[in-house]
Amino acid sequence: MFTQVLKQDAAAIEANLKVVMARDADLPVIDGMRYAVAGGKRLRGFLVMEGARLHDVPEAQAIWAAAAIEAIHAYSLVHDDLPCMDDDDLRRGQPTVHKKWDDGTAVLVGDALQTLGFELVLAPACHPDAAVRADLALSLARASGRTGMVLGQALDIAAESADAPLTLDQITDLQAGKTGALIVWSAQAGARLAQADLAPLTDYAHALGLAFQIADDVLDVEGDEATVGKAVGKDADRGKATFVSLLGLDGAKARAKDLVNAACDAVSVYGAKGQTLKAAAQFVISRDI
Ligand code: GRG
Questions:
Q1: Alpha helix locations (H) across 178-242?
Q2: CATH for the 2-286 domain, from 3.40.47.10, 1.10.600.10, 1.10.1660.10, 3.40.50.1100
Q3: CA distances for 255 relative to 19, 126, 148, 232, angstroms
Q4: What is the pTM of this model?
Q5: Mean pLDDT score, 217-233
Q6: 48, 144, 168, 190 - which has most CB atoms within 10 Å?
Q7: Residue 91: CB within 6 Å of ligand 1?
Q8: Closest ligand 1 atom, CA of 230?
């Protein structure tokens, strides 16, 4: 069952990150890193592990790429929660890093988690061939930096002071960077480790990433703060254009469903082996966390 696989992968990723940081100095930045990287659904890490399983990549290798993407994702959340960005007090049901410590510690925790992500994909245990490790690191840099997640976040910030609300096409582009790019990298990582065709998993992840973001917008309207583990209702409070404000609640849900169908079609080429990825796509739009 998908949720069981997600749980097992999450535990393996947690264990890898714990071992990696076990011998580090006893400083707020290290405590903050352990704190920030703990918890979460580990959806991106799961995508790495499942893509690896599809291509018969050993788990002992894939776990390094899975831990890497969870470190990068955690960095983005720590920085996004800062008062100069989204200004949130709650993340994964706990006080955000800058609330528990201070802004300076949160900046450093994010910085260090980001560099940790690159350290992990470049670890020889991730792949014996340095060219494969370099490919993982280069694609991760492009997915997380100025052509990916940072670009999406910058477009989001610019939209706040724009004269007109964003159109559906503009929001789709913005989210392809902000949330989509890391999801695409995660789904591709197993094929990169196996030096296999990236196309089916790329198509799957483009549709999944958008469905994930639409589900996030729906949760912002319908979700419960205690269950979601972060503040809800923020988009409407700020008059922000979202998939829900542009398509309506029912329209957004219908669009997410279509995207999940497209994601499932994309992995049909793997036959029965693609079943868990199909279940993951269904989970993304039915989740309440
Ligand atoms: C600071 C450069 C920079 C980028 C931040 C990812 C991001 C960009 C901001 C997060 C804000 C946000 C709520 C985005 C919506 C989608 C999203 C990424 C939700 C959080 O991801 P989940 O639901 O979280 O996978 P868990 O806690 O389960 O890992």
A1: 181-194, 199-222, 225-228, 234-237
A2: 1.10.600.10
A3: 41, 37, 23, 21
A4: 0.94
A5: 87
A6: 48
A7: no
A8: 13
